[in-house]
Structure formats: C-alpha cells, structure tokens
Specification:
4-stranded antiparallel β-sheet, Alpha-Beta Plaits, 14% strand, alpha+beta, 2 domains
C-alpha cells in the first residue's frame, strides 16, 4: 500500500458537509483549541504521530488547470499519521475520544457516530482517500521509539557539555546516573509489529546516504 511505510500509516479522510452546518464545526474547533484538556483522550493515544481536521469551503478548492469546481458542499479533511494497522487505529480512536469524534464530525453528511464501531469504520473507509506516495523519515520507528531516542540524545548531549569541566571521577558518576536514567530507552525498537514490509526496502534505499553522512 502506498500510504504505508514501515510502522506508520498515513490516513486522509474527506467528508462532505452542508454549508449551513459549517459554522457549527468552526465553533466546535474554536472551543476545542481553547480547552485542550478536553482532548486528553486523543493526546494520550501514543500510537498517533499527527492528527488534524481542516474545513475546506466549497469555493476554496484550488484551480490547478482543471477549472474551478462548482460544488454544493463544503468538506472536512482529516489527516493523520499513526503506528500499526488501520483497524487498531480506528479502534483506539473510537475508544479514546468517542464524544470528541462525534463533535468533530457532527456536521459531516451521514456521519453514523463513533459507537458502535462497525458503522463508523464503514464511514471512514468509504470516505478515505489513499495517496499515491507516502514519505516517512523513520519507517522503522514508532512515536515512542523516537521519543526514547531523543531522551538518549539529550542525556549524551548533557554529558558532552559537562565532560570538559568535570574531574574523571565526577564524570564517571554522572555517566552512571545518565545511563540509569535512560536504560529503558536503549534497547533496539525492532520492526515488529509493522503495517507493511516497506521498512526493509526503505532502509536499504537510504543506506548509501547514511554511509556518506558526516560522522
């Protein structure tokens, strides 16, 4: 699948909205932005790399040479990148913020609600737009893998900054403390579970660039 790279899956969902309902969704988005704690269920889903809802009015579609379209509906574009499979993501989404999903898609035509899950999955699948290409800079790493690597990087960076001014004994103690603090972040993340076998191909294709990069 072109919208899958290693552990990551790129989703695009385009749903129509009656124009007279668009202002309701804009108001809901304004409230959600002003009260981010209401999205705690979404922010707590560690499988999500990125998620965004965008309202596109019927007169805002670009003219790329095909002529400006004459549309009867406004649309909402949902864009997300996540780890794992499509089913795992939709299940986690529905379990994590069912009320939030119902608010965000409130104005979308024929939206069935996030619960029960089967009609919701059918709705997402029917309105999903698969992409021709999907670039992922870290196909073998999930969100938690990247955060773990960043914690190790920060610890090493701090040790490098302290090395020149610390006595060997003090630096040895600092090294041990840093090692203990990031020991759970050191194991290799591996490639399982993956959503496709593209990870190996991506690593092979970028191997030459990695070898040429300055150390």
């Amino acid at each position: 699948m072109s919208n899958v790279a290693g552990k990551a899956y790129g989703m695009n969902v385009l749903t129509p909205m009656r124009p007279w309902k668009t202002w309701i969704n804009r108001f809901i988005f304004m409230v959600a932005r002003s009260q981010p704690r209401q999205l705690g269920g979404l922010l707590g889903l560690s499988i999500i790399h990125f998620a965004r809802w965008v309202i596109i009015k019927r007169d805002q579609w670009p003219d790329l040479g095909q002529g400006r379209p004459r549309l009867g509906n406004d649309y909402m574009l949902f864009v997300s990148n996540f780890n794992g499979t499509w089913d795992q993501y939709i299940d986690a989404f529905s379990d994590g913020i069912p009320n939030g999903l119902d608010l965000f898609w409130y104005a979308s035509t024929k939206y069935p609600g996030s619960i029960p899950i089967t009609p919701f999955k059918d709705y997402i699948r029917h309105n999903q737009v698969d992409v021709d290409s999907y670039y992922n800079a870290t196909p073998g790493a999930a969100q938690r893998d990247i955060k773990a690597a960043l914690r190790v990087w920060i610890a090493i960076d701090a040790l490098a900054a302290d090395h020149a001014r610390m006595a060997p004994e003090a630096f040895a103690e600092a090294w041990c403390r840093a090692l203990v603090s990031v020991q759970n972040d050191l194991p290799s993340p591996g490639y399982a579970p993956v959503a496709s076998n593209d990870t190996q191909s991506a690593d092979r294709n970028r191997e030459a660039l990695v070898r040429r990069a300055p150390s």
